[in-house]
Design goal:
This protein is of the alpha/beta class. Helices cover 42% and strands 24% of the residues. The strands form three sheets. Strands 8, 9, 10, 11, 12 and 13 form a six-stranded mixed β-sheet that branches. A five-stranded mixed β-sheet has the order 5-1-6-14-7.
């Protein structure tokens, strides 16, 4: 009887250990982002928050995984996904033919607009001014973004100034180093709210769909993410997250 009691006691003592081990072994979903892109990803009280952070968190929960967010330079995200350093890339990222050579993308989970920021009273009053014959405006962009890719294709390297972050590009506009900045509309709104003397043009530069980057060979994860996104769209969770950060006007 004493031996039986001892065995039962030992098993009871092991239960917490097994529980802790199970918790430690929960697989991680590592998300790479560039946390200077409000409201999609940004720091609040030392923590990365935003639309992408919340969407990734609910996806991870559905997949039974623990989300880990890694802040990095935007141009490094695709390479990090392709080489397996991170599992997914979420940074208000648009699907492009160039990026599809290195990674796969999920179904779209949000829409974006490339907006044009100018100084109040600027000679640039619409997107057409950028294309006007003889125009030689200097355009500020965040390096590696679709704004960078599109502007370089449309206006040439010599007319595009590339900056590490959106705030750096906006600072260049304020100090007269560039004539305008092309960046996603939602961060653009945040920059306008935080800086006097800036304005967003009514005409947009481009419309985009945002998606999640996954390594080419990781089709299993891609399928799981797409299934999770479909559920989040159907039950209204995705719309609620977007509405939280971008209230309907």
């Amino acid at each position: 009887m004493k031996k039986l009691f001892a065995v039962l006691l030992a098993l009871c003592l092991l239960v917490p250990c097994f529980t802790a081990l199970a918790e430690e072994e929960a697989p991680k979903l590592t998300m790479g982002t560039n946390a200077a892109f409000k409201p999609y990803e940004y720091y609040e009280n030392g923590v990365i928050v935003g639309i992408d952070a919340e969407v990734a968190a609910v996806i991870a929960e559905k997949l039974g995984m623990e989300l880990e967010i890694v802040d990095m330079d935007f141009p490094a995200i695709i390479g990090a996904v392709a080489t397996g350093k991170i599992d997914i890339g979420m940074a208000g990222m648009t699907v492009t033919e160039e990026r599809l050579q290195s990674v796969n993308f999920s179904t779209s989970y949000a829409k974006g607009i490339q907006a044009i920021i100018v100084l109040e009273g600027s000679a640039i009053t619409s997107v057409d001014d950028l294309y006007a014959e003889g125009a030689s405006f200097k355009i500020g962009v965040q390096e590696g973004t679709t704004g960078d890719i599109y502007c370089t294709d449309d206006f040439g390297e010599e007319n595009v100034a590339k900056y590490k972050t959106g705030p750096d590009a906006v600072e260049a506009l304020k100090t007269g180093k560039v004539d305008c900045v092309i960046i996603d509309n939602e961060p653009a709104k945040a920059f306008i709210a935080a800086n006097e003397g800036l304005a967003i043009l009514e005409t947009t530069y481009a419309d985009e769909d945002y998606a999640i980057a996954v390594a080419l060979e990781n089709t299993e994860l891609l399928d799981k993410i797409n299934a999770a996104l479909e559920e989040l769209m159907e039950d209204g969770t995705l719309a609620a997250i977007v509405e939280k950060y971008i209230p309907a006007e």
